[in-house]
Amino acid sequence: MRIAIIGGTGVYDPAFLENPQEMIISTPYGDAKILKGIYQGEEVAFLARHGVGHSLPPHRINYKANMWALKSLGVERILSTTAVGSLKMDLMPGDLVILDQFIDFTKKRDYTFFNGDDGKVIHIDFTQPYCPELRKILFETAKELGLRIHYYGTYICTEGPRFETPAEIKMFSYFGDVVGMTNVPEVILARELEICYASVSLVTNYAAGISPSPLTHQEVLDVMSENIEKVRKLFARAIPKIPKERKCICKDALKEYKEKGIL
Ligand code: HPA
Q1: Using CA atoms, how far apart are residues 104 and 176, in angstroms rounded to an integer?
Q2: To test ligand 1's pocket by mutation, which of 80, 157, 169, 205 has the most ligand atoms within 8 angstroms of CB?
Q3: Does residue 70 have its Cβ closer than 6 Å to ligand 1?
């Protein structure tokens, strides 16, 4: 299984998969529930990040089990979705953003497989945190489909589960474009496993203080469900374009350490 989709808020079922079958994958970090199904003759894995029915808040998601499980299935490419608040007026609710950078404002997540217990010190390059090959395919496909999409976006990841204060948003808006609660550590763990990872964020609201009214989770869910068809169409059309052979930096993330015999 080469390709996986991670569905965020509002994306609990991979509507385009034929014959979805549930698998529980055991990992050293706990179990992960993954669906596998066929898409255009190709086996694709699907993982609902918040659990089916949105039962897991962002800070309780077992990111390490999820990513380890996908790796153990042979997954090399991940397309993920996230709901985000906008920090910029020109990123409007309903718009799609292909993330290219992130800033980590989380506080207490388990964000690495290399925590040094084994005496190994591993520092991975994050100049391009998201897979450039996948990002390009997603952008070109979105353009073909006539979707409103932005090719660049810095994702500010907060700890949550509360939404932000307007003062936080004022600060974040100097640094980033969108705000969400789940991309970290997912994007980091994918790179540590040399899996290509790209994320399409769907803007569900203007962030606190930019929006004239208080935020509700229902608003996020409503805008997500009104727009999710765009992401489904985008992924469905992008998946067949993903080449078998990877030419990106992601596959060699640990090369330096493998060459030195450390890993
Ligand atoms: N803040 C954080 N996470 C979010 C938001 C937001 O405004 N909207 C959707 N996910």
Answers
A1: 11
A2: 205
A3: no
> Torsion angle of alpha carbons 162, 190, 232, 218, nearest 10°?
-10
Per-residue burial over 67-95, b if 16 or more Cβ lie within 10 Å, else e, is bbbbbebebbbbbbbbbbbbbbeebebeb
Bridge partners, residue 32, by sequence: 25
Q: Is 156 in the pocket of ligand 1 (CB under 6 A)?
A: no
Q: Say yes or no: CB of residue 96 within 6 Å of ligand 1.
A: no
Show the tokens assigned to 158: 């907060």
Closest CA to 46 of 68, 72, 26, 75: 75
CA-proximal residue: ligand 1, atom 6 (nearest): 85
Single-letter code of the amino acid located at 219 = E
Q: Which atom of ligand 1 is nearest to the CA of 181?
A: 3
39-70 confidence digits (pLDDT tens): 777 889 999 888 766 688 999 999 999 999 99
Whether residue 13 has pLDDT greater than 80? no
Ligand 1, atom 9: nearest CA belongs to which residue? Answer: 84
pTM score of the predicted model: 0.95
Burial of 40 (0-12, 13-18, 19+ CB in 10 A): exposed
Q: Which two tokens stand for residue 50?
A: 């918040």
CA 262 to mean position of chain CA atoms: 29
Phi, psi of 253 (to 5 degrees): -60, -30
